[in-house]
Amino acid sequence: MSPPPSFSSSSPSPSPSPTCSPITFNTSPLLFLNTELLINLLDNCLSLDLLAVSHTCRRLHYVALPLYLSRFAIPSLHVTSLHLEGRYMHALMGLQSSLVLPPLDHLSVKFNDGPYFATEVRRLLTFVLRLGRIREVTLNLASIDSRWVNGLVSINSETWCSDLLQLLSILVENKCEKLTVTQGYFLTYESHVAVVQQQQQQSPPPPLPMVLHDNSSSSSTNVPPPATSPATTQRRRSFLQDSLTAVSNFFVRPSLVVSGMEMNTEQRPGPVELQAHTLRTFRLHSNLFFTHPFYSWMTNMLQTTPITSLSLQLSGVMQEEWTALLEFLSLPTLTHVAFASSCIHLNDILRFVARHPSITNVDLHRHYQYSCERRLSKKLRVYLPELSSLGGTPENVRLFLTRSHHIPSLQHIALSLPVHQRTFRPNDFESLNRVIACSIKGTQLHTLSLEFLVPVFCDQLPNCNNKRVYDGSEPPTLSYGSLIQAVASSPQQYARSSFASLETLKFSADGNFAFAKWVLPALPRWLAMFPALRRVTLATNCLPSHVQSKEDVVRSIKAACRLVTDVVLDDNDNVRKSSYWLD
Predict the structure, then answer these.
(1) How far apart are CA 392 and CA 369, in angstroms?
(2) Where do the segments described as Disordered lie (predicted)?
(3) Rounded to whole angstroms, how far apart are CA atoms 75 and 21?
(4) What is the pLDDT of residues 226-259, one digit of tens each?
(5) Which residues contact 63 (CB under 8 A, 6 or more apart)?
(6) Which of 54, 357, 440, 527 would be 64's cystine partner, CB 3.0–4.6 Å?
């Protein structure tokens, strides 16, 4: 029997093996699995592992990335609408590296707060850079506030501002047609003061000339300053002039300084050459744009972009700042405008509209009357030859029409009838109907849309202190049946000539049972006031739920109005969209 082999140290060592190349996924047995087994295997991985696997090779990319996106409510890469908020914002990590980009028609993003905001802005910027054209983009900034603008949040505070400005610029220039930036709470006056103080600290005042007094005599001797060059003298004069201008703007007319930007409203800039940007609708629903440096970006963008639709709906902005902005802007291509902020003065609205004769649609505030602390100028008259649609509360519409010349193209008025109080008085509806009649008197209207705002829950009303649920045991806050009865009982007070040209009436409401209980019973009597009425459109939420009542409503309307040939029961969204284009 031979002895076992010896493993002593004197035995020669084996030769080193050749260097092996690292194993990659291209040569891994994982790729030899069929797609079904591969999906079942990867479905047990963590989300971060799926993302890492998708970066290895093309085949695993097309298998792992859809699994990753499906965990964040994105079923496939062929979606046309995408809404990201909360934990779903992690989908941006996969979207920004995807080889196949979804053909998005609408992109809505609600950013998270804390340290995630700056990172999400950067990821969204990377994703948008790779996307094609998007029809509509909505950015919700509810998670950030003035601390981000004033530098109190130090997490990535150096990069988020430039990234957000770059994102907005890319969207405006060649990515989207409709851009909405909403929410966010920013103290515009606070940021304005901070910028002014910073400018004053960076520019110290020049030294004053010395004055020496001679003790031996009562007269004083002025020692002239040393000789200076003409360039130094010119710099001092320029500095003194700039200092006086800054002081007068800050203390005398603070409305001319908005968020650190000096603006002379008396000298409006001349016409600016429009750029070939894709943006057409801009919805300004966040006061972030009234802070530095977003204010300068916004004004430059509006002056150089062929904007056709502009919506102004935000809070936290003072009336003086609205005045400065509206007097500064000049938008030659504007056709649709909505003033949905109660802090805007009616004088400023009229002056802005008067400078834009191409406007065809004007939407005033739905719920609150505009501020009229200053008396309206009697010389201020608005002439809009292209205006075809006007909407708002009856009082706002009346004030607008009283300051307008004859509008030949006006064919559509949307009257929003808001709820103001818990209990009603009969004279409230008589005066309200008088305003409606006065608003459309003298106009050749063919279509009139009435939107009845009768909320079922009282806490739906803005700034309402009576938080209670309406149970239907008493009349609603405003009984529009009383309004209609007041019209029908006093035909001599509301002249039929005011409604002589009306051919179509549209009704919509916010409360289903309230409109059906208090308005519908008297509706046929009121419709008899319109001699040329041919078509009546009722939103579905204006009608009772049972079918028999709907048939009774149609039958009663046609019986009371012999000329009415078409009674349409339409969806509420369609009726409201025809009244307010910014919904």
Answers:
(1) 9
(2) 1-20, 198-235
(3) 38
(4) 444 555 555 445 544 554 444 444 433 333 333 3
(5) 35, 38, 39, 42
(6) 54
